[in-house]
Amino acid sequence: MTVGDDTALLGLVAGVLTLLVLASVIGWILSRRITTGAGRATVENINARIRAWWVMASLFVVALAAGTGTSILLFSLISFLALREFVTLAPTRPGDHRALFWSFFIVTPLQYYLIWIEWYGLFSILIPVYVSIFLAIRTVLAGDTERFLERTATNQWGLMICVYFVSYVPALHMLRIPGYEHQNAKLMFFLVLVVELSDVLQYVWGKSIGKRRVAPSISPRKTLEGLVGGIVCATAVGAGVWWATPFAPGAAALMALVVSAMGFAGGLIMSAIKRDRGVKDFGAMIEGHGGILDRIDSLCFAAPVFFHLTRYFYVP
Amino acid sequence: MIATALAAACRLISGATIEWQCDPNADAQRIYFGNHSSHLDFIIIWSALPARLRRLARPVAGRDYWAHGTVRRYLASRVFHAVLIERGHACAAAADHLAAARASIQHMADAMGDRHSLIVFPEGTRSLTGEVGQFKSGLYHLSRARMDAELIPVHLENLNRILPKGEVLPVPMLSRVVFGPRLHTSVGEDKHEFLTKARAAVVQLRTMS
What we know:
Chain A is mainly alpha-helical. Chain A is 76% helix and 0% strand.
């Protein structure tokens, strides 16, 4: 199936395109209106973010349109770069070197290869079972006990978040939903659209009417107004594009609500990690956003839940 | 061609953030001196330089390692234009050792000619922990021989985690390269004083982040 054959997918792409054009126009107007003071920096950051969204959305759409293999490749690359940002902040020691080499160059490609050959059984337990055992063995063989528990646990969690959780996005291809065969690209689109839109709308609502801080000790910029506004709007959008999914309108709304909430929680968890390690962003790869991990934090925690809910309720 | 591609690949693998506290494009001849913790160090500094200056920058490296094997020899002579020097042998007599060291310094000073810059690692060997070790006196003598060159301290962060001493395969982590402000020195400066100051100039680039 290509994008051109599927009007629903074309509709989604057109919708995102409209949003981006709209955002760019608003960003342009803002940059003309606000030329001084602290507002200037905010507007410049917003415009940098919008430019980065163009690039990210294009990459995602092109990868999706090119087929299953390309989207698996795209997300394996995202995992690789995210893991790199994560491990940079981890308290590793020379004794972790070989285990880390395995994580990057063997485990990550293998996890995505399993999606490509659709071996669901091994895909779902490779990292939580085999890798967690194997890497602990590899690390203990290096003979360094200094902060051993902290190091092995951190490296394992890095693989869980950056590789295992993220791989659930292209893994949606493996689901065989009756009456929805060969259309799973739209399922991926639905998930990424709702989660990222929820992020953006939380930011927009928070910036415009946000007052009550919802998690002051973790992320001072997250507000209750932003949270509610973002999730409600993302849920509405999710329900509005039910026609592209195997879900009925009500179920699509429920799914959108769940993934938005998971996304919010994911953002909080990753903020807590950054705060713990004393950094503001995981990296500087995406202009205006920070690192890759700063952009996909919400997706990490939403994807596995979305996958398994869909699998439980829609795959016989 | 190969050099440009290699530099781009290095920046990608090392995920290096590059920070300049001096003019990156200045035409002056320079001696870049940095902390040493990985085989990747000089390649990272080299790849972080603007393309025009990269062609003029020559890393100083041990002949024992870089003159062996076709690929290494090709890279050292054709791509990096490395200045290969004999490394001190413990068994050599003290007098021979001194003469060899003098010859190496002269070789480096000559290699700069009237347009090249050098990349050197004054610790002489790779640190295991990422801590900056004591500087050997080579940098002092080189700076005396080339008083006209700008001394630029460079701090490399995380390279010891990407490719530690004793490992062959790199783990891709993010790294940081900071080029500090020029280190000034005067003709009559004491050797020990100079080396302490030079080391401090590298170390303080780390604490600034």
